[in-house]
Amino acid sequence: MGHPSSVPPGATDNPDLSQDPALPPVALTPEVHEAEERNWTPVKIAVWLAIALLGGLSWVMLAVVRGETVNAIWFVFAAICTYLIGYRFYSNYIQKHLLRPDDRRATPAEYKADGKDYASTDRRVLFGHHFAAIAGAGPLVGPVLAAQMGYLPGTIWIIVGVVLAGAVQDYLVLFFSMRRGGRSLGQMARDELGRVGGTAALIATLTIMVIIVAILALVVVNALAESPWGVFSVSMTIPIALFMGCYLRFLRPGKVTEVSIIGFVLLIAAIIGGGAIAGTEWGAAFFHVEKVPLAIGIIVYGFIAAILPVWLLLAPRDYLSTFMKIGTIGMLAAAIVIVRPEITVPAVTEFASSGTGPVVSGTLFPFLFVTIACGALSGFHALIASGTTPKLIEKERQSRFIGYGGMLMESFVAIMALVAALSIDQGIYYAMNASPALTGGTVQGAVAFVNGLGLTGVNLTPEMLTETARNVGEESIVSRTGGAPTLSVGLANIMQQVAGGTGMMAFWYHFAIMFEALFILTAVDAGTRVARFMLQDTLGNIIPKFKDTGWRTGAWICTGIMVAAWGAVLVMGVTDPLGGINTLFPLFGIANQLLAAIALAVCMAIVAKRGLFKYIWIVALPLGFAAVVTITASFLKIFSSVPGVGYFAQNAAFSQALADGETSFGTATSVAAMEAVVRNTMVQGILSIVFVTLALIVIFTALQATWTAWKNRSNATSEDPAVPSRVFAPSGLIATPAEKANQAEWDKRPAATRKVRQH
Amino acid sequence: MGALLAVRSAAAGLAWYVKGVLGEDAYEKYCDHHAAVHGTDAAVPAMTAREFWRERVDRQDTNPQGRCC
Predict the structure, then answer these.
(1) Whole-structure pTM value
(2) How high is the pLDDT of residue A3?
(3) Residues of A in contact with B66 (CB under 8 A)
(4) If 0-12 CB within 10 Å is exposed, 13-18 middle and 19+ buried, where does residue A723 land?
(5) How far apart are CA A15 and CA A655, in angstroms?
(6) Nearest-angstrom CA–CA distance, B50 and B45
(7) Which stretch of DSSP H or E encloses residue A168?
(8) Complex ipTM over 0.95
(9) What is the mean pLDDT of the segment spanning A320-328?
(10) Nearest to B68 among A260, A523, A525 (CB)
(11) Which of A112, A287, A309, B11 gets the most CB atoms within 10 Å of its CB?
């Protein structure tokens, strides 16, 4: 411990941060912060007591009372109250003891300011910005699939996981990257873990990216296949984005809000028009696309989108997606509070312990924790929290609100997705999420399968399926796996009670599909581009010409390689005789959590090098959990003898059947299908081995770096040198009285000398 | 009158926020930065709005930003 408690945090780190005496204070002293925190007025005590009591009551309602039904409002209260307490107390503890931000230090946005990449951004704006960058389809899809284990395990993991793991990871990565001029996770891994650990982290990131893009694309294919309405309205986003791009480029540069509103109106028109066109005979025939051609279409699209200039397609669609994201999530939250649906799903279903659930196979531990990745702990965020956001942050102390707070918001999105999925009838839920291999893809097949599961309270009739399909404007809702259609039915079901009634369900359903497809297609484009640059950088070490990112041929080759990689996984998922999502989704979750383990391992090494061993448990706890979960899940996927769980067990079973000369086995009805299973399980098994090996290398090198730091008691740092700050801004959402008083000092200065706009 | 003012200031606040999150204020920020560094020095002219937006989006071609799942 290099920091005796009598010295204010940070003071010993940077003895020479004396500020310009001509300026009002650029930071409040630690004593002032301390005094404000300790100032427990009766009102404050009453408010926090009320939050604690309401949160406690909600958890009791969810976990203990468990009546016939449970009202969705308890999920909302349990989540919000726990977030508030976690934010106020735990993130404050992390701030005080582990990270020790020092507002006397300039952030990269200040000392590297260039008016472009590095630019101080108001904390509230940056919060919205950061949230829009981290939240995508992940927190919407995972909880839907995990709902098969009952509402309680998923709810606990999302809420407790985010407070102790996910938000901690985002906060730490953001802070450490900020102290390093906005360096990326890959660069930090190289700095902290050396060449072996750094290279393993880089390769792991690249392969994980491929898997994540592939599975997101699979979700879109599953949502749009054989849905003329969906295909029409989602493909209309391409011309809409092209139009927006040209508008911004040639007509009115910089009018982002204006073009987003125009785009939004066109989007709504596309959804309404989609219904009309799908209603015509030619429209239904023309836009009816099977899974395989649709997958090929998305692969071709992905390649073209990734080589087109950003201004033409990616940037305008990104505006649209940000606009839709914040609007729709706000709308869903309001609707859930207004409608307060009753939930009839059991707290814990038998699938949690038997591991035989039709949606994703495997028992609660470890598979619940990999099925719900985003929303509780998402490694992918480490790529956003290092890189873009730290270059925009105004003051060091704001990293808590943006990093920790932003992730709490995403967790709330996951809770709402869970509520939406839970609010639909159990029978319909299983009919939609069981693979076509189980239901045969027909209404009769689905009814027989679901009723045959023997679940209490589930009595599915063919009419329920055909009527729901008709209400949402689809030909069929049987085996629409992947989570997106289920969420859309849930959302449509809730929204129609607020606006429009049953007649509007089809609109809301396709609105939700559109909203998810927009995120995913943006993530696919951006992911392919980022992966291409990573590949070019890596290949550049062998063939130097690849380092030149302006080299057209090289860019095309690398884009082609990345698209081929995720495209192959996508086609494998689409044609998989076992169903696709249920075998591939665990791989997505494992990949995402392994990335989290890598990010946390890097953070642990940094904490160790700062000499803060007393508080290293803050990182070690989520790292240990993520490592145990993902390594166990990977080992089960590799070594389990249960064919539904272990890739190689499945492979062996089908190989044996083929060797025995059988022509059908399990859900595969032909020799070709059986051969496909053998091929797919081999690829999936090998991917599992690659991931877990790379992650183990990274974790091992991080432990080594931690041990070395402990042994040497070194205080070596890879931080950028401290530069005194010349600006002030409050740190949380709402400025405290002391911050307001200090801000008033700054506001007294002539406007010309105030660089940052304070609204 | 008080209510009207409150509504107007709330609308202005909302517009400021939306523009901020979508990045519409980028050119303003760039100009502020440019003025702070170079002052009104004619030797280093600031980019025009059109040039700025073009350059901003073209830079993303070689410097892509990830979007999360």
Answers:
(1) 0.94
(2) 40
(3) 133, 380, 383-384, 387-388, 526-527, 530
(4) middle
(5) 68
(6) 14
(7) helix A167-178
(8) no
(9) 87
(10) A523
(11) A287
